[in-house]
Amino acid sequence: MRIVTLYMLLLFVFSHAYFGKENEGLTVFGWSMLLQSPRTVSFEGAGSAFPSQDFGAALMNPALLQGDGLGAGISWQGGDLAKDQGIAVFSHPLSIGETAGRMQHTYGVLSHGQVQHYNEEGERQDIASYPVAQYYAVTAAFPLTNFSFGITGRYLWERLSEHSEDGREPQAGMGLAMDWGFLWNFGSARYGFGLMGRHFGQQIRPYVKGGANGFALASELAASAFWRSNQDFTWLFECSAPRYSPAIGKLGLEYRFAEPILLRAGMQRELIDVVRYARSAFDSNEDAVKAGYYRLFSAGAGYRYLNFVLDYSYSMLIEGMGSEHRIALSGSF
């Protein structure tokens, strides 16, 4: 009980920073929230109240972390915007006193490849940088009497350039973040509810020596739910409120095509765009709906064989920007 009380205090302390207005529009390390499993992206993030042993579920809501014995997984994503990005995880049982739970270790990495330098006049220079970003996260989840609670701590590291410019010496930027989550299902397998806070924290080291520091992270608050209309069909919902950005609505679904095969699809839009779309149906003078997210929709599938799961997702980007692909393999031992 003492450890749960401590987590609750940390929850409210870190959440308070969300409502501050310092450094508005200067959020950093937003890339880490895009490193997700194919299953999560197939739902467009709507499955944050849907229990699963998929390692990506715990990245959206730490309270979803579950499983028996040891678990491991690896995910890779590529495409027109997601290039050379991946996640590797390892999970195991956790015991604190008389409280039994589970812990997951996650390593994420993102490489932008070669980036050519240009001067202030837009002229190409003979130097290039190789930006790279990575993070390490540890998640702990504890099933309690009427709900489950989880918390994640994350260390972020990002290097933008190896070359000095205007006398400023570059260095790796660093940040610390925390996620928390609750999950209620009232003992039912047909529906459940979740509440999350993601990516609370700040930058702790600037990208250049002597540079500005302390910027807030791209945090958000979210509420979610799932409803299983029948044995094979599940609807998923989430509403999230990102820091300094319009609220987002997410909708996903999962269909059990056969015992080892699951089909998935999802989309997300800014809620203001949903309102515009509804109003335009009755008012010809209303502006046409605008795309409020860079992915138009996502779809995917999962295949289970014994204790192993193979997942894949495809995402179509807006306005002819291309597509993204993700694939993952996970298992329990």
Number of strands: 16
Helix content: 10-25%
Strand order of the largest sheet: 1-2-3-6-7-8-9-10-11-12-13-14-15-16
Strand content: over 45%
Task: Tell me about the largest β-sheet.
Answer: 14 strands, antiparallel, barrel
Count of separate DSSP helical elements: 4
Oligomer: single chain
* Spans of at least 5 consecutive residues with low confidence: 15-24
Report the principal-axis shape: globular
Category from helices, strands and their pairing: mainly beta
The helix/strand order is HHHEEEEEEEEEEEEEHEEE
Distance between the termini: 30 Å
On the 0 to 100 scale, the average pLDDT is: 84
Please compute the radius of gyration using only Cα atoms. 21 Å
Can you give a write-up of this model?
With about 325 residues, this protein is mainly beta. Helix content is about 10%, strand content about 50%. The chain has 4 helices and 16 strands.
